[in-house]
Amino acid sequence: MEANTIEPILDQAALDAACERLSEGAFLCVDTEFHRERTYWPELCLIQVSCEGYEVIVDPLSERLDLSPLLALIADESRVKVFHAARQDMEIFTRMLGAPPSPVFDTQIAAMALGLGDSVSYDNLIQRVLKRRLDKSSQFTDWKRRPLTDKQLSYALGDVTHLRDAYLSMKAQLEDSGRLSWIEDEMAALCDPALYNTEPRLAWQRLKLRKPQKDYAAVFASVAAWREQMAQDMDRPRRRILKDDAIQEIADQKPTSEQAFERLRAVPKGFIRSKYADGLQEAIHRALENVDDWAPDLPKRQQNAEMPAGAPEMLKVLLKAVSDEKSVVPRLIANAADIDKLARGETGNDIAAMQGWRFELFGRKARALLSGQLALSFQDGTVRLFEL
After folding, report:
1. How do residues 52-81 score in pLDDT, each as one tens digit?
2. Rg (Cα) of the chain, in Å, rounded?
């Protein structure tokens, strides 16, 4: 489709006709253009969708459109929705639908199982899978301004036409190599509603608790909830309300007066008297007066088993050797937490590397290495494995 023939859908009749055509496809490739630099909620500017032999751009800013038919297609569980780096698009549609669309196929995750890289960018993926170079000059344009230029529309539509071709190629490769099941858990995790839960009381989970004390944790959770609610109410990014480091310092110091706030380093001077601080002191007092109610239920710290010297390093070498041999991104097989647990001799069901295909690929060898039944050596710059 040439750039000068692209017309975004602006009226209901055109959208209804497009949805009828899209409903004939077994899958939908979906992308969005949105702004979020100055808001909490994404400002959706375009929706691009393609299926076999058909593609379309929908303008959600048109006052003549009811998006319900399109959203119904995206919510349809009989149809795979294909994204690249799906998280932010999924967040948008979860809010519009009330639940995450499913099932989904994320080409960024699929790339890990094909050895194409960890967190590979879209243009890099298209270049490697389809041998096409993309013009990304329109990537950071103003998608809210109307009318959109032919160049913007061509760029936007290309995101789902190239995505369609990449999906078909990658899916075929995964099926031929028997690796489609390797990414099922990661794809399913993208459809977990908890991933997109914006309930303020849960906002602390996006941050890192640095101390085990209950009063610290209570203030930490309460202030995080206050910031989340303020960000939502004012439709401002969280960092524009209060930065993460400031939440940490407030939880640590527990200031209860203006003078105490002025002594904090991570909180801007005069912040406590600004419009953004409305209710902050109440959030601190509330937490300190109801510590048990506000402190998150954290698992008790357990004494870790002694880690044999060199065990994590040996496991990482083994993991790299296995991932190189099979052309798989190491993180898809085992993460840092898995390596540490294995190095300590743990074998629980919570270690993904010891389950299913990961066990066959790496876990079995890891167990043999740690028990002295497998040895590593270097020959000509390559790691070699030897059974003992």
Report:
1. 999 999 999 999 999 999 999 999 999 999
2. 25
